[in-house]
Amino acid sequence: MTETTQYDVTIIGGGLAGLALSIQLAAKKYSVALFEKEEYPFHKVCGEYISLESWDFIERLGVPLSAMQLPIIKKLIVSSPNGNALQYQLPLGGFGISRYTIDFELKKIAEAAGVCVHEHCKVEDVIFTNGQFELHTAKGNFTSTICAGSFGKRSNLDVKWKRSFILKKNNKLSNYVGVKYHIKTEFPADTIALHNFKDGYCGISKVEDDTYCLCYLTNAANLRNNDNSIRELEKNVLYKNKHLKNIFETATMLFSTPVTISQISFAKKSQVQNHVLLCGDAAGIITPLCGNGMSMALHSSKIAAEAITDFLEHTTTRPQMEDVYARNWQHLFGKRVFAGRLIQEVFGKTWITNLFISIMKRLPFLTGWLIKQTHGQPF
Question: Per residue in 92-127, pLDDT tens?
Fold first, then answer.
């Protein structure tokens, strides 16, 4: 295939949203280039649980989920820092698959569909002039009619564009650290557990190949107060929850060091910035406690693909495309993200979490109602 620098659509970031968007647009015969600063396959911080609302959509993209013998997760366990635990049958449920696997599968599907995937290629700047985008990258400059950003929770472009969440002073929703391991352990394959500790929580659930994802989120102050040592944080804080202590002391760690991410913000974000349509975590992050970020990323790619298609087929103007996408995003995800922020704040303090779990055990309908607020329908 002849190398080109001009495309209908360029996509910055090759996570779930970016890859899914590229596949949908390539299927409509648009020329698409995707830029990813890492090299596939690679691990990233993620709870690696996908709501079943996304199953059919992912299979339509070409990932053969039904043939992959993935764990179907139907049960939820939530424990408070004092070890008190509730169990709940998930109304829809989800499945486990690592980002290492699903992102790589989507990347191969994208390339087979004709997407030009540029790996090890960081986008340094995006300039919009005269109806065209110019991307300055590590591999040269590229131009396109449409540009989408799916570059995750925080990127160099967020800083360059001075997005509002970047400019906000640190508060209890704006400075978190994420840590992920893959482990071998004994734990029910049909269950996801969320174990709370002081100023954070840790999830565990099965992915493929008899492997489990162990991923936790806490505020940066918790890490600083433990000499910026992940191991000290785990021993001094996470171990106070007996369930976590048991997992860490009995599991076989498959990574020599965990995968980490810092400066995570759950502050409100815009869905369009400088005419770039933003998808996935770049558009808004639901707190991991709610367990639905991966489905939201995938669904956001679907509504972005629809809006972009209408524009490229000359049925809408650029302002109309941007407005339709932003309104559809807010309609689908605005309430979920807001509910996630409220839940995050409830689970921020030890005594409140202990009390809340105790109440939820007595009122199971409350658990069901909270889950419903953060999940959607199959799409």
Answer: 999 999 999 999 999 999 999 999 999 999 999 999
Q: Count of alpha carbons within 13 Å of 41, Cβ hemisphere only?
A: 11
0.90 exceeded by the pTM?
Answer: yes
Closest CA to 208 of 63, 24, 79, 18: 63
- For 288-313, write each residue's pLDDT tens digit: 878 789 999 999 999 999 999 999 99
Q: Is 280 left (phi over 0), alpha (psi -120 to 50) or beta?
A: left
Q: Which of 187, 195, 358, 203 is nearest to 291 (CA)?
A: 203
CB burial readout 144-169, b (16+ within 10 A) else e: bbbbbbbbbbbbebbeebebebbeee
